[in-house]
User: Fold this.
Amino acid sequence: DLFIGGFYQYMKFKSRTTESNIEIADDELHGIGLNLYMDKRDDVYYPINGSVTEMIWASFPTLFNNEDALNKVEIEFNKYIGVRNNTDVIAARVYTGLGVGDLTFNQKFVIGQNDIRGYTQGTYRGNYAVNIQGEYRWNLYNKLSLVGFAGVATVFESVNESHNGQLLPGIGTGFRVNVF
Assistant:
């Protein structure tokens, strides 16, 4: 259930913005990292019970021709709990992103990218991020379900100082079809 892997990462970004307080960012980055992944779910596509834990460490050293030495650590935990005789599912997720060093504009953690629905990607961006969310999957019939979700996120050392520590809630409902 435990998977360990290393990786090399090459990224090239060209970012433009109309806001005067954000510089234009052109980055070319080379990094190496380690990924630890523990999968205890009962099903990969639609888990009812179990958990998934992932830890990623990425380093962008000056040895690889990066302008500054930077490190990123990401930790995420997803838990699935079957309720009503394993008919419905409660899913919970915690995500933390930690930047060591001053991350470039394009390396910063972004709210709305993978977590907390409803925020324009890139508006809330910082060196640190924390997201907590949960959802209830009410399985109506076979592979059809209604979903209710809620969560909150925040960033620190943000590009925009007024966003530091600001709580960013998200709540909603949806309809889900489990294809597999």
